[in-house]
Each structure stands twice: as structure tokens, then as C-alpha cells.
Structures
1.
Amino acid sequence: MKLWGGRFTKETNQLVFNFNASITFDQKLFRQDIDGSIAHVSMLAKQEILTDVEKDTIIKGLLSIKEDILNGTLAIDETQEDIHSFVESTLINRIGEAGKKLHTGRSRNDQVALDMKLYTRDEVLHVNDLCKDLLVVINQIMKDNLDTYMPGFTHLQKAQPITLSHHMGAYFEMFKRDRSRLIDIYNRMNYSPIGSGALAGTTYPLDREYTASLLGFAGPTLNSMDSVADRDYLIEFLSALSIIMMHLSRFCEEIIIWNSNEYQFVEIDDAYSTGSSIMPQKKNPDIAELVRGKTGRVYGSLMSLLTTMKGLPLAYNKDMQEDKELTFDAIDTVKGCLALFTGMLATMKFNKSTMVLSAKNGFTNATDAADYLVNHGVAFRDAHGIVGQLVLYCIEKGIALDEMTLEEFKSISPVFDSDIYDAISLETCVEKRNIIGAPGKVAMEKVIQHNETYLKA
Ligand code: ARG
């Protein structure tokens, strides 16, 4: 059933109809469309715009439609223009005259704004939960690896020793911020647009506060034009999703490097890796690569919607129908990536001895050697130069700093004494860094305590 045939004398060109229709993708909104309609008619009856009998008949009809779609006995008819037309026409077929009153005091413009808000509001929480699942896994790895020394990198060059716990802690902070962004978005978007009509509200005495409260909103939106023209909440959500993907992608990039034949810091579980059709020895990190790859696709959705919205005059314009496919795709992509990534991380094996060996072999203790000299009265800039000479000497001899004899140390600077070995041991380098945020065990235990309180809240 077409909702708008009255003022037309010709049939719609079929290509125009197809181009204009959104049912192939907005059918995802059938639950929200029905729930929104139920709240709307409940309010209409409370305001005595519909009778209680009409309201009950409509609600019964709407619930039967929802149930039949869910149990597969009612197929969504893709020859309809959109999900709103499908629900309304099915309702009229099922209950007759009362069904024709459903759309009283409403436009598809505030209806679709409501449906999309209800849909994304739930999805914000789903993504938030998936981020939490990931944080639980990260926190467990942190707890298990307080003593797993590894090199920390800058420029992908070994820099200073840290622990695996500390490295994982960086990702904990990222996904924790992602969750707080999602909650911010939820709170900001949680106002109901229904009752805004096409753009100018309506003359019916609607109780918008009541409809909003039935649907769990904090209240009604305050400008009817903005209500039907606002897609900020989708842009914010796509932006938060893009940042989540950016974090996942960086994590994946590290896992791909760590899983490489050269590093061998980790081994991805067989269940989360794939083989090659020609090279029998291969075990590839495809899941990590795909998550990294799909990041571009989610950014694309964000850029696409920003661009769609940038030139739109108030209020509703059909351009906005383009919000759906890209939002749905981004949500599904991010949820899939989060779930798979969490599984991959939870089953990944860390080659702790390889990590420790790597930390020992890259002069990651050079800064601490310089600090040693400073503690013995040498100015830092001079100490930096002396340790530079030590490193050069070791590179030529193919040894690590702590493999130098004391005589060798002294030949470069007489300030060195036998306590230098303890001062530059991996354990000292890490464990002396115990200010909050640093990799030392005492500091990390405090952070993990924070994490646990946070995860319980
Ligand atoms: N399918 C439309 C959308 O997604 C629904 C709103 C239609 N409103 C209109 N005035 N044509 O935006």
C-alpha cells in the first residue's frame, strides 16, 4: 500500500519507485517501528484522540505483526516502499478501520527519526558490552603478566623495558575511554523526537513527555525541526565506532608484528588463524588483518554520513535515508570485529621467554645506565654521551651492556662501579619505575585494582 497516492494521477515509474524505496534495508527497524507505534497510540488514547477500544485493537494488531515477523509466518513484503508502509498496511489488512487511525498526529519524518534512535540506542549498549568483554580479557592478561618483561618500543625500535602487563594496560585505557564515549552519546541522544510531525509539530494535543517516558527516553526533544533533521547522534556513534576500530586496528597491527616469524612474541591459536592454499607451512593472522582492514570501511561510513548531511537545509530531506545502510553496516562490522578480536586475544599464547630475551638484547637499559651516572654526580648530557660510547662498544663486540666487564666499563668512565650490574638489570629497570602509570609491579597492582573496581561497577 502506498501512503501517499491521493494527489497523483499517474503511476510511479518503476525505476523511480525502486530508487526511492528503502524496505530492503530499513526492514531491520520493524521492532522499533512497532514499539514506537504502540507508544504513540497509547498516548493518543490517553489524550482522548483515539478511543480505548481503538487503541487496544491497534496494539493487538501491531503485536501480532511483530510476533509473526519474529516467528517467520509473516514475510516482509519488499514491494512496499519502506518498513513504515509495510507495518501500517499490514495492520489495516488485519484490523480494518481502526488501523487507518494509527498515523494520526504523526509523520514518517518523526517516525523514522524515532525508529533510528530506538535502534541505535540499543546498539550503543551492545557495543559497550562487547568493549567490556574485551576489557575483562585484557585485565586478565595484565594480572597474569606483571613479571613478563618485554621491550617497550618507540619508532618500532626497542626503547625501554616494560612488562606485558603494562603494554596491555595501554589498551585497557583506550577501550575504557571508548566506553565512556558511548555512554556520553547515549545520554545526549536519549530524547524522543516523536510528536514533531513532519517538521512543525501538530495541532493535536499530543503529550510528548508521556510518549517519551513510555519509550524510556529522558524527555522529548525541544525543537520539532531539529528533531526530524538531526542525525548528529548517528555521526557521533559512527565517530565512536571509528575510534574503537582505530584502537582495534593498532592492536591488530602489533599482534601481526608480534606473531611474525621474526618476532615470535605471540602465537595466535589455530582456531583463530588460517592457512595458505599453496604454502603448507603457513599459519596466517588473517583475523587480525581483516579487523585492521575493516577499519577503513567504518571510517568510510562516518565520512559518508558527514558528507551527506553537510549541505542539507532544514528540515527533513530524503538524502537522510542514506543514513541507514552505512550505520547498520558499521554497527554490524564493529560488533563482529570486537567479538572475534576478544576471542583471538583470549586464546593467544604469549612466548614470555622470547619477550624477555628481546628486552635483554636491545640496549633497553641504556637510559638506566645514564641515570646511574647521574646518581653518581655526572651531568645528564655527559652521561648520555658516555652511555652512547658504551653502546657503540657493545655493538662492535656483539654483546649486551651487562655482559661488559667492570674493567671495560671503567675504561669508558671511571665513575662505574660493581653496582652498575644491579642498576641496569631488567628487573631493576622495570621495578624502580613505580610511580602511578609506570610499569613497576607496585604501580601496576594499583592500576589493576582500579580496573577491577571499574569492571565491577
Ligand atoms: N525511508 C525514509 C527515511 O529513511 C522514511 C522517511 C520518509 N519521509 C518522507 N518524507 N519521505 O528517511
2.
Amino acid sequence: MALKLLSLDMRLVCELELSPLALVFWSILGVRALNNGLARTPTMGWLHWERFMCNLDCQEEPDACISEQLFMQMAELMVSDGWKDAGYEYLCIDDCWMAPQRDSKGRLQADPQRFPSGIKHLANYVHSKGLKLGIYADVGNKTCAGFPGSFGSYDIDAQTFADWGVDLLKFDGCHCDSIVSLENGYRYMSLALNKTGRSIVYSCEWPLYLRPFHKPNYTDIQYYCNHWRNFDDVYDSWESIKSILAWTVINQKEIVEVAGPGSWNDPDMLVIGNFGLSWDQQVTQMALWAIMAAPLLMSNDLRQISSQAKALLQNEDVIAINQDPLGKQGYCFRKEKQVEVWERPLSNLAWAVALRNLQEVGGPYPYTIQVSSLGRGLACNPGCIITQLLPEKVHLGFYEWTLTLKTRINPSGTVLLRLERF
Ligand code: GAL
């Protein structure tokens, strides 16, 4: 393994002209980026991007601009409104937090108007609430929104984040000169974070930016990253959620097997509680993100969220599926004209099953399935206890191997089930 690291490091040296000695030293120490002990279950938290984007206008929109006030308010609500108790722990800043220039020592700095107390102060505040702070940077010359990129400054940026007390880094992939610098940059930042000695979850977008050029090597990616985006940015729309699910089904052979404790596929933020999804579509996002063992990073306004959306996001049974310690990602195993059937193996021989109605017309669709076909034929052999968790909790009772399960699934909705083998 040290050899593997050494050869990668030598490539990094060529690319970034950094001290070979330092890299050899890391190899001797046997630094294992992914072996950072973090994200053993999918990361849960809040991330500002989808809901608040790059709103810089604190004059006109003081409550919606990217400022320390926004994050402090969210931190308070994460604790007072039960989000933290439900498992949402990481409060994450996305793009547009930075000042347009680095400081005189070459360090990134927060915009002084919008973050007058600085990120270290914000991290202390977030930690005082028992939460963790995430931040955003970019592997290339600029962030996607045009703020300073980390290319050529990976060490100093990693150290700055560690000094501030940051707990997660979302590392974007805009404005990179070449695929070689993109890949080496992602690897390098992983090592640089590790070298700081601080526990920092490393959230990548490496495969998303690589895919147009060549097939990602997930063994490599999972070695360096705790989770990684594969596909386009989520929007507050049903089309967006459907496109993410469709992409996942098409590519599941490639991506499902690489997921596990410490390394997850990231289908992007939960947009539940915003404007674009109907109730049943929100149920579908929550159910399928649980089946996919996806990071649960909400992007919504916790100051204004319906009690229905809140209950869905805080549903402990669904979160328990997402956070199942076995850490296996689920997959779609049957696709019919109107229904997709997904399943996910859970610890203690239990299974989660999601029945998704692809129809967007008509009423609830009656769907019947043989229980013997679920969980690779194992879930209900010789019998199982089935609980429907979504759209609401219903104890369906004991099912023998020979029985069929009858459900009704709302248009664009999903029925999520938990099967305990008996
Ligand atoms: C995109 C990224 C989004 C968000 C945005 C910020 O590339 O995928 O999640 O971070 O940049 O500019």
C-alpha cells in the first residue's frame, strides 16, 4: 500500500511541483486517506446550496444571503427543532463564503462583510451546539461561482480549514486545467487533510467531473474520498429527482458495490421542505435516499418548513434504514412499466424494500408482489414481519414465503417497507 501511495505521490510531485520528501514521508507514515474513521454511516446534515445558492445580497435579502447569521440561525434550529437528535449533525457551507482574494499569507479568508466574525468563530459556535461544521472549496483555479480555487494551495487550505476547526470539506471540481490535475488534485487534498491530523470528512465531486472524459475508477476514488457526487446538481423539481434516480438505475452495477462504511455514492441534497415536490414526490426522495445509503444533506429553510416535511425528514424508521450499520447500498431489482422495485440488505438479516409508482396519472396503483421474490429470495424465508414505513407507518404483520403482498402506491409516490426475517 505504501508503494501504491508512493507512485501516486510521485505523479503529484510532477503535477504540482511539491516537495518529494514530504510525500515520501507521508508514505512511510502509511497515511490512509479513506481510513480516516469517518462517515461510517452516510453523513447527515444541512448544506446551503440548493436553497440559498450564491446569494450575496445581504442588503436586500438579509435573511437569505450567505452569511454567518444564516448558519448561526440554522445551527440553533438544528438543535431546538430536533434535527440534531434525529441525526443531522453537519452544518455545511457551500460556495460563495469566501472573500474574492486570499490574505497576505496566501490563506483563504471569509468575506469580511458577510462573515465578520470569521469561520473559526462560526466553527466554535457550531461546536458549542454539539454540531459539526462543513466548508466548501474547489480543486481547480476557481470555485464554480468564481471565488479563489485551491489549485496549488492544497496544503495551506487544508491546514487553514483544520486550524479553523472545520469537520467536513466539500471539494468541487470546476475550473481545472486538465483531467490529470483534477484527479491528482482530489488525491492530493485527501492526503493534505489527513496530514493536518484533524478528522475532516472529505466529500468529493471527482467522478462527476471525470465521467465526460473517462470512466471513473471507483476503487481509487473510494480510497481517497468519504463520499462523491456522480451526477448533476439536484434542483427543486421532480424532473431533477427522477433524472438522479434514472441515472442511478442505469449505472447501479458500477456504483452500488463500492459503497460501504466510510465511502458512499452521493446523489446530492434532499430538497424536501422546499417548493418543487409534491408530498408523494418528497416521500419518494426520502425513501430512495434511504435505500441508496445516500448522505442525507438537507437544503431547505429550517426557519420555514412544514410540519409534514419535518416529520418526513425526521422519520426515525427511515433514518434507521439510511444509517443501517451494514452499510450496503440498495439497488433496483425489478423495473416494470409502472413500478420499480428497489431493495436494500440491512443488518440482522432484515431488508428494506421500496415500491415506486412511475405513473404520474390516475389514482393509487394497486400492486401485488410475491414475498418470495424479495431480498434475493431470503427476506421472507420461511416468513417475515412486514412494516410499511412510508407514506405512513402501518404494521402489516406476518407473511409466509408463499404469500403475496398487496399495496397501493400513489402516482409518483413510493411505499417503503421493512422486512424482518422470522
Ligand atoms: C456545483 C456543485 C454544487 C454547488 C455549486 C457551487 O458544481 O455541484 O453542488 O456546490 O457548484 O457553485
3.
Amino acid sequence: MTATYTHTFDTPVYKGTVSVNTGLFINGKFVEPVLKQSIETVNPVTGEVIAKVSAGTSEDVDIAVAAAKKAFKSSWGLKVPGHQRGRMLGKLADLIEEHKDELAALESLDTGKLFLHTSKFEVPTAVQVSRYFAGWADKNYGQTIETDESKFAYTRHEPIGVVAAIAPWNYPLLTSFIKVVTALATGNTVVVKPSEVTPLSILKVAEYFNAAGFPPGVVNIVNGYGQTVGQALADHRDIGKLTFTGSTLVGRKIMESAAKTNLKRVTLELGGKSPTLVFDDADLQRAVTGTVLNIFHNSGQMCTAGSRIYVQEGIYDRFVEAFAAAARGIKVGNGFDGNCDQGPLVSEIQMKRVLGYVESGKAEGAKVLTGGSRQGDKGFFVPPTIFVNTTPDMKIVREEIFGPVCMIIKFKTEEEAIEHANDTEYGLSCQVFSQDISRALRVAHALEAGQALINGIGGGVGVPFGGIKQSGFGKELGQHALEAFTTVKAVHVNL
Ligand code: NAD
């Protein structure tokens, strides 16, 4: 028998009782792991344990992959037409929408995120993503290609087979769910490994797969540590594709494993150190609002976080003053209180990591304008922290911090700003603020990144997302994501 965790919320923004099964989800059922191990999840607001969640090992991965392989051959893959897969994804979206506040509350409890953000953005985006890929399920077809009069050829977009999806903790529901629905829409079966730090929301979603009509084995969830469950997935010979979101360090290991085992296809959504460029002709208010959101949202725990803010000399003083005032105005606290703008970091490890970077910035001679130390002694709170007087070689300027920490750097010319902005091993995102449309586009094109945001932040599940350089490769969301989950077969017909 697997355990169920129940939590009663009695907060200003949400009241209700939510239960979630904490077992592994394999072949349509919640089961105990072979070795009966568990991992504790921790509430980032208090530092107290929330629940013990089953932790799998390579034995459980073997069982889950075998279930997914069998389901692919017997009851999924090419056996189920796209329109039926789309209908199930639509039903899944409806079920999530019906339970949206429960799911949002659980996600906020596990991550420390503001309930406002999980209930108004993250869970609704999951619903939208499921509906979006439901629409693609019967439209991902090939082409007819003329060769000569005695022949014709056509292509088919075929599913790959068993897909492994490994997710991080910063957007636990969205990062795993986007991978799952794209895999299902394109006819693959899936084994998901959530982050061991935040497994609760995807386990809650597991309850809806059977009700939405997905046959047993089509979706499987194996929680556990990266070195055991994650590594076993990366090494598995029956997995045809692995889609990963996480750090560049682990992404590299996954690629190595894929190369050494069965050359499984890999897509990697990795880290970032994204630049923001604010030009003299920018709308100051817009630039401040967009830049604040792009670095401090989700406590800065975003792969796209715009942590390097380059500001042209003519607007620099006014920008720094307005940006620092906005950062000081951010109220940091419990995301269930209803009066906060920023929650804690996800874990003690992450808080210590971020504070370690802050100390390194101070030690290397950068000046802290606001923030710069832990808030309180309970929970994992770090307030918005701004550095000035940095140099390009400082650790805080070069490495991903993954917290509410940024630096403001003065520049003179467009060329100089582009050169500094591109001086990074990463290439995930960039932001440009200018009211001169020609300049904004010219700079957006010159910056080395998978996405460019002009005069604000991004959005839209139909827009492809993914990095270049050491931020990874392969796109999620949008039509381009379908390519990453299918193979193209060419069929030649002799008339
Ligand atoms: P992480 O790389 O430590 O872990 C990510 C996942 O990989 C977890 O589920 C973990 O258990 C697993 N893992 C760890 N070791 C593994 C191994 N040897 N083999 C297989 N799996 C293993 O990352 P994190 O700390 O959870 O998340 C933060 C990182 O994720 C940041 O670098 C951030 O930039 C990145 N991220 C990128 C995107 C994107 O879309 N580009 C989105 C969110 C987060």
C-alpha cells in the first residue's frame, strides 16, 4: 500500500484540504518502490518536513521502462490515432482546470512560490499547454515529395518510443508537464523523473491520467535522486529519447551517458546568465518594470533570469535609482499570506549557494546596493540583491546564481554592450529596452540567445523555447517541439 499525504490549508488566499499519493506511478497504479526508500520534501517557508515521498532506484526504472515499452507496442504509439490522443489531452486539461487551486496550493507548499503565481499563471499555463498539444496531435503529418514520373516518395512523422523526461525544481509542474504532453501528443510513452526536491505537483497530476483515458503504462512517474533514477534513465537502452531540463553540469553527463549506451536522442534545456540591455532612449518605467520581473520573479530561480543588466550611460543614474527603489519595495515572505511579492528560495542548499555567490561578489570588490544577506532565521528567504561596480571577470558576472541577485553595469556604445552581453558561455535569453525599433531589432538579432525579449517579458505556449551555446539545444513548446519527439521516415513508392 502506498501512502497518501493530506494537507489542510487555512490561509488568507486558499482554504481547503489536498491529498496526494506519494508512491511511484507505474503502469497506471501507485506502487511502492522495490527498495521501499523515501525522500523528505521540505517547506521552504518554515524549513519543516512536509512529507515523505517514495524514492525509486534503477530497479524501479527498469519496471517503469518495461511498462512504457509494452504500452507503446500494445496500446499507444501508432495504434491510437492522433485525434484520440488529442481528445485525451483535452480531457486531461479539463481535469487539471477543475482541480486548479488544489494543484496550485500543493505546488506553492512544495516550492515556496506565491499562490498568486501558481494559481494564476503556472497551473493555467499547464492547462493551456495540454490544449495546445491536443490540437497538434492529429496535425503532425509528413509531406509528399515528387521525384520522377515513375516514383513518388512521402514522409511520415513517427513516434520515437519510450521517452524519459527529467525535470528541475524551479517550475516543477510546468517543466515536467510540458515534456509529458508533447511526448503524448506525438504518440510516445513516457517515464518522468521529477526533481526529488519538489515531486508533489506532478504526483497529483498522475491521478488524472487514468481518468483522462490514457492506457496503463503510457505515463509513468519515478521520483528519486538524480544519481540513481536520473542516471538509470540516461543509461537505459530501451529509452529512445531523453528530454532534460536542469543544470549544464548534469546536461553534460546525460549526453555522455547517451553517447556511451544507445545513442538515444537528447534535448537539453540548461542554465543561463541572460543579459538585459537598456538604451538611453528606453521608456524608463517600462524598462524598470520589465527588468524587475525578469530577475526577481520566482525569487530569481529562473533559467532565463536577466541577471546582467547593462544600462547606457545617459539613463544609468535614473535607471539605478528607480530599479533599486522597486527592488526595495518588493515584500519578501510567505506566498500564502496574500500580501507578499516574493517567496523564499526552494531549499537550504539553494539559499546557501546564492548567499555564497553574494559573499564572493563582496569579496571581489563589488558594491551591494540593496539586499545582500539572508532575511530572518527561519525558512530560506533572500531579498532582492543588486550589485554595482562589478568587473567582467567576477564570479557573480560569469556564473549562473539562480536567485534574486543581479548586477547593473554601465555602457557607452551599442557595440560595447553587445560584446559584453555575448561574453558568456550561455545563450538562453536576452532582453532589450529601446524605443528605436530599428535598434531594438538590430540588437536582438546580434545577441547570442535562443530568445530575445523586446521592451518587456515573453509568453505564449505556441512560441518555441530553448537555448543555444551551453544553454542546451532543442526546442520546447510551439510547432518546433514536435520535431524533437518524432522521427521522419521516408517511404519510396515505385509506380
Ligand atoms: P539539476 O541539474 O541539479 O537537476 C535537474 C534534474 O536532474 C533533477 O531531477 C535531478 O535529480 C536530475 N539529475 C541530477 N543528477 C543527474 C544525473 N547524473 N543523471 C540524470 N539526472 C540527474 O538542476 P536543478 O538544480 O534541479 O535546477 C536548476 C537548473 O536548471 C539551473 O541550472 C537552471 O538554469 C536549469 N533550468 C533550465 C531551464 C531551461 O528551460 N533552460 C528551465 C529551468 C531550469
4.
Amino acid sequence: MNNKRIIIAIDGHSSCGKSTFAKAIAARLGYIFIDTGAMYRAVTLYALEHGAIVAGIVDEERVEAMLADIDIDFRFNSQRGASDIYVNGDLVEGKIRTIEVSNCVSAVSSIAAVRHKLVAMQQQMGRRGGVVMDGRDIGTVVFPDAELKIYMTADAMVRAERRFKELTAKGDKVTLEEVYENVVSRDKADMSRAISPLRKADDALVLDNSNMSVEEQMAWFDAQFERVAGM
Ligand code: DC
């Protein structure tokens, strides 16, 4: 068994189960799981709560000016078996996945200064290896030398249905159409933005999980990991 603790970069479309998959892999390997989308959501939430987003319009200069006041950290929650995200010491895990944050996060994540700050934090968190990091630019920008890169995708309606179930289970009043629109528009925004757009790294393996169970995805992963890490 090879004990080298590698970097596993998982990129892909929104709502295709990247976090669930990444979390399961991290638990299996005893690696740290880092949800970088949560970091962009946390900045968006802060901007919403501090007047830098009004009626859905993001004031980029104000967001940039606020960055120095935003301190993000992750703390392990043993009940959830994953880390919770905190902003300036406040637990925001439950507040960052609303449709309001989802609707503004693509605009916030296209601000260069936001990316600059968060990418530097992510590189710092992953520098020792033994991490599974999920996002949009992990294999292309954050860790271009990651030993294992996975590009996840799934049919847009399948993704919308999954996210709709999650949101309604939490009591959010949303329609499937609204969630579908958000999924499609975020795909478009993430793939067409000028800085670090979502794209498959040349050396990434594609995992389309439209018709795959979590168990099937894990079996697929085990085969890839064995090949790369020589387990
Ligand atoms: O993974 P998620 O849906 O929670 O991510 C929220 C948004 O954050 C997504 O629409 C794009 C942005 N994001 C990004 O630009 N780069 C990342 N590494 C992760 C997320």
C-alpha cells in the first residue's frame, strides 16, 4: 500500500453531487474535504447581509472593499462527519445554501479579488496533500498538478430535481422550474466568465453520474484511485 497522501481535485457543474461524492471519498481515505463553493457562498452571504448586493445587483467595488473584513474558517463537526464553515466566528453553514445566495454567487465568484483571496486560502489548506477539494477551478487553477482530477457532470434536469428535493426537504419554498433555471444559468455563468471559467482540465477524468448510484460512483472512484495512488 502506497501511503502518499495526494491531492484529489473535483470540478464540475453545479448540483451534480460533487460535495456528496467528495465527502464520501475523503471519509474513506481519511483525507480532509474542502468545499470551495461554500467559501464563495460565504462571501456572497456576507455581501448580502452588509448591503453590497441590493435587489440582486452586486456592487463589485463594495464586495472587494469588504474582503479584508471577511475571515473564513472551517471547523470539523463530528456529528455531520464534515467541516462547517464560519465567517468571522459565526457558523453560516445553514445560511449559505438558500436560493437567494445561489442566485448571486456566480456574480460574486467572477470578481477577480474574491477569487484571488479564496484561491490563496485553498492552496494553503491543501499544501500538505491528503485533501479532496471540490469546486470549479481546482484542477485548472488551484492545484494544476493534482495527482487525481475528476470532472463531474450530470443532465441538467436530473441535477435540478436533486437540488429541488434537498431545498424542499429543508422547507424552502421553491419550484422545480426556479431551481432548473438557477442550475442552467449558473452553468452558463460559471463556464463563460472571464476569470478561471469552469472547464475540464486536459488530464481530468470525466464522471457523468446522471444514472449512477452513490455506490456505483464509489466503485468507479476506487478503480481510479488504485491506478493513481497504487493502493
Ligand atoms: O459548488 P457550489 O454550487 O456550492 O458553488 C457555488 C458557486 O461558487 C458556483 O456557482 C460557482 C462558484 N465557485 C467557483 O467559482 N469556484 C469554485 N472553486 C467553487 C465555486
